[in-house]
Amino acid sequence: MDRQDRKRLSLFTPGPVELSPPAKRALARGVLHHRTEAFKEALVELEARLKAVFLTEHPVATLTSSGTGAMEAAVVNLFAPGEKVLVPVSGKFSSRWAEICASYGVDVCRLDLEPGQAPEPESVSRILIGEPDVAGVMLTHCETSTGSLTDVEAVCRAVRDVEERQGRRILTCIDCVTSLCIDEFRMDDWYVDCALAASQKGFLAPPGLAFLAANRDALERMEQERGPRYYFDLRRYFEDIVRSPFTPAVNLVTAVNESLESILDLGLPRIWKAYRSSAAAVRLIVESAGFRPVAVSQAGGAVAFRVDSVGAEALAAAMRERCGIVVAGGQGDLKGRILRVSTIGKGPGEIVRFAGCLASVLKHMGRSLDLDGIQADLERILEDSAVWESLR
Ligand SMILES: *Cc1c(COP(=O)(O)O)cnc(C)c1O
């Protein structure tokens, strides 16, 4: 492959993802000063759009950090050292919740699950009933390391039932980094207290910004005595949403703002449906190749599948060399055993291209993927994923 082809690698990785056209245009413009009226207007617009995608009436703070920064901010502002939280762990990102809590002396009650599984509402309520001092539940909506989707609505309803039955308050805090603008999420309707996202996944923008929405109870908790916090002291951000306490990544603010404008124009329900179709199409393709998807309940943004018999690294390298398609490998214990394909921002054309590439690479490895046999099903499934062409 020559250098020119290398430049045209297409990313099927779950973040960073290819940028939306409006994000690209915004980045091509110069830099705004962060204390100007024009920038303030961009922040006002951005917050309104963030509320529209979190589906919340509550304020949303913008932090200059990656998604993990917002996770850390949630932990240090909502819980004091010595308080206890429940963390269901089924992969790299849910495990990160547990690691951050432990780093700040917040006690973790772990619910360990197999990779690909998601926490069940019944197990969550059982633990909460047995652990009367648990003050929070940290969930990962889409566990990007396995493509597994948690039923946040059902788990939060279970938490609420325990609260009502036992007259206690348990804050729910959701990592929506790979689900916002991808899978259906409704912060207020689902009684979520705190939710966070980042710029480089469903927002189709570059990495560098994180967003944290907090309801009244979460905001109240932030006012209480806590362990040390400074840059991520969320009180500074929520005090005046349109006046960042520190120099924000101004170019990213405009990129995300304009990307979200287009995303909202398309409409979230249409986007959720498109992702469900795209993920179903990718599952059909890999299953037809004889690979087993990892997730029991499939998220829209990433499909992970076991490739034990072929060798993950060899397969990924071949796809990259032959067709310029970059897929992600497994993380932690799943390294070398699975591959992960992101559907973020991908239309039917690209998914069919992925299928063609996989078929040709497997053929060279002496295996087969019968594309003709699944063509009709694939076309039918992909009808709903054709939304990105109208993203201008
Ligand atoms: C990408 C991702 C994050 C954030 O990772 P950063 O590299 O810190 O932006 C957090 N949670 C999930 C589920 C993710 O997929």
Describe the 3D structure.
This protein has about 400 residues and is an alpha/beta fold. It contains 14 helices and 15 strands. The chain has helices at about 5, 20-30, 35-55, 65-80, 90-105, 120-130, 150-165, 215-220, 235-240, 250-265, 270-290, 310-325, 350-365, 370-380; strands at about 10, 60-65, 85-90, 105-110, 135-140, 140-145, 150, 170-175, 195-200, 210-215, 290-295, 300-305, 325, 330, 340. Strand 14 (about 330) and strand 15 form a beta hairpin. The site of pyridoxal-5'-phosphate has 12 residues, from helix 4.
In short:
This protein has 392 residues and is of the alpha/beta class. It is built from 14 helices and 15 strands.
How many beta-strand runs?
15
Specify the helix fraction band. 40-55%
Number of helices: 14
As a percent range, the share of strand residues is 15-25%
Cα distance, first to last residue?
31 Å
Largest beta-sheet details: 7 strands, mixed
Q: Secondary-structure element sequence?
A: HEHHEHEHEHEEEHEEEHHHHEEHEEEHH
> What structural category characterises the helix and strand content?
alpha/beta
Calculate Rg over CA atoms: 21 Å
Key attributes of the depicted protein:
392 residues; alpha/beta; seven-stranded mixed beta sheet; 44% helix; globular; binds pyridoxal-5'-phosphate
Annotate the secondary structure layout.
Elements: H1 3-7, E1 10-11, H2 21-28, H3 37-54, E2 60-64, H4 67-78, E3 84-89, H5 92-103, E4 107-112, H6 121-130, E5 134-140, E6 142-143, E7 148-149, H7 152-166, E8 171-175, E9 194-198, E10 209-214, H8 216-222, H9 234-239, H10 250-266, H11 268-288, E11 292-293, E12 302-306, H12 312-323, E13 325-326, E14 328-329, E15 338-342, H13 348-364, H14 371-382
Parallel strand pairs: 1-13, 3-4, 3-5, 5-8, 8-9
Antiparallel strand pairs: 2-10, 6-7, 9-10, 11-12, 12-15, 14-15
Helix pairs in contact: 2-10, 3-10, 4-5, 6-7, 11-14, 12-13, 13-14
